[in-house]
Amino acid sequence: VYYPGLLSHMDAVWSEEGDPTGINDQGILVSRIRSFKNASIFGNTLFVTTGGSRGSCLQMAESMAFGRQCIGDIETPTKDKNVTADQRRYLDFFHEQFDYYKDVQNIADVAVLYSYASMGFNNDGPAVSFMLFTQALIQAKVPFDIIYDEHLQDLSKYRALVLADQECLSEEQIEMIRRYVREGAGLERAGRPGRKSENASNAETGWPRAGELHRGGERGHSKAAGCPDDETILEAAAELGRDD
């Protein structure tokens, strides 16, 4: 899915993700945070079910924290018996404190690239690395934005860019990243980003070459075969958190 082609022309979008926010039976944190970030980078409001019999206070809190001016769909009228007393308190809080939620801007200073070519030509390794790295950032409580190819033209608000095995990059994109790092920003690599051209040519680009990105504190966390393991990605996310 080419999200910029859809969301850049919309004001609001609905998500019907099936997994509720929380800790599942395997002890894994499940959230809709990525979906909220996908929408907010384009100024969209994301609607999800948060209240009623299928909702929870946690889902309402997630929507308030990561959404744009929206507590979500409580699914039933506010006087319905399916809206619990706790949920009503969250709803009242949102209405009473709405001035703190309107017209807000994300101040995250870490960007994670979602490369359309990388995901389109190979939605295995790049997708897994992207999901693992963003999960690690979420659990490490590191604020971040999900950005797309178009956003590489201006990365000035970010102190660090994450390339989580986004393997297909054009020469123009590589040059924009080089310039960004040379100006003092940081680059966090996981896997082998930029090893192919934007059309997934098998010809190795040889990027980045040793030492060419040193000014911004470039770091790599690569594995010779496949995407980085969980421990490697958690270590990289923790480093971004400590850089504050």
Structural write-up:
The protein has eight helices and nine strands. It has 244 residues and is of the alpha/beta class. The strands form three sheets. It has a five-stranded parallel sheet with strand order 6-5-7-8-9, with helices on both faces. The chain has a two-stranded parallel ribbon with strand order 1-4. It has a two-stranded antiparallel ribbon with strand order 2-3. A hairpin with a 5-residue loop joins strand 2 and strand 3.
Structural class: alpha/beta
Which whole number gives the mean pLDDT? 82
Strand content: 5-15%
| Major sheet: arrangement of strands | 6-5-7-8-9
Order of helices and strands: HEEEHEHHEHHEEHEEH
Relative helix content: 25-40%
Query: What is the gyration radius calculated from CA atoms?
Result: 19 Å
Shape: elongated
The number of strands is: 9
Runs in which pLDDT lies below 50 for 5 or more consecutive residues are: 222-227
**Number of helical stretches of at least 4 residues:** 8
Q: Main beta sheet, described?
A: 5 strands, parallel
Q: Separation of termini?
A: 33 Å
Give keywords.
244 residues; alpha/beta; 5-stranded parallel beta sheet; two-stranded parallel sheet
Layout of secondary structure:
Layout: H1 3-7, E1 12-14, E2 22-23, E3 29-30, H2 33-40, E4 45-47, H3 57-66, H4 85-96, E5 110-114, H5 116-121, H6 125-139, E6 145-148, E7 160-164, H7 171-182, E8 186-190, E9 219-221, H8 230-242
What does this entry show, briefly?
The chain is an alpha/beta fold.
